[in-house]
Design goal:
InterPro entries: DNA-bd_dom_put_sf, HTH_17, SinI_DNA-bd. GO terms for molecular function: DNA binding. By secondary structure, the protein is mainly α. The chain has a single domain, classed as Multidrug-efflux Transporter Regulator, Chain: A, Domain 2, CATH 1.10.1660. It contains four helices and three strands. A three-stranded antiparallel sheet has the order 1-3-2. It is elongated.
Length: 84
């Protein structure tokens, strides 16, 4: 019976992670996806070119998370030049 309770709790926790924070990507994940260096992604975040969530920190480097839909929006925007 204890095993069933534990399995149910793990499934519940997995659902909550997917709903709440499952769409958050680390700086490294974004960098790998875009094929750039981590430093480049951090520079984009600090300049405001890439929207991110800052994590609480107590050191030199601030942790960030980028929402998946923000990254997807970069690729869905098409800049097609118009001809006159």
């Amino acid at each position: 019976m204890a095993r069933h309770k534990q399995e149910g709790m793990e499934e519940e926790r997995g659902m909550n992670e997917n709903e709440a924070g499952g769409d958050l990507l680390t700086v490294r994940e974004v960098a790998r996806h875009l094929r750039v260096d981590d430093t480049t992604v951090r520079r984009w975040i600090k300049s405001g070119a890439l929207e991110a969530v800052a994590l609480p920190h107590s050191g030199k480097r601030c942790g960030y998370r980028v929402r998946k839909h923000t990254l997807d929006a970069l690729f869905s925007t098409t800049n097609v030049p118009t001809t006159v």
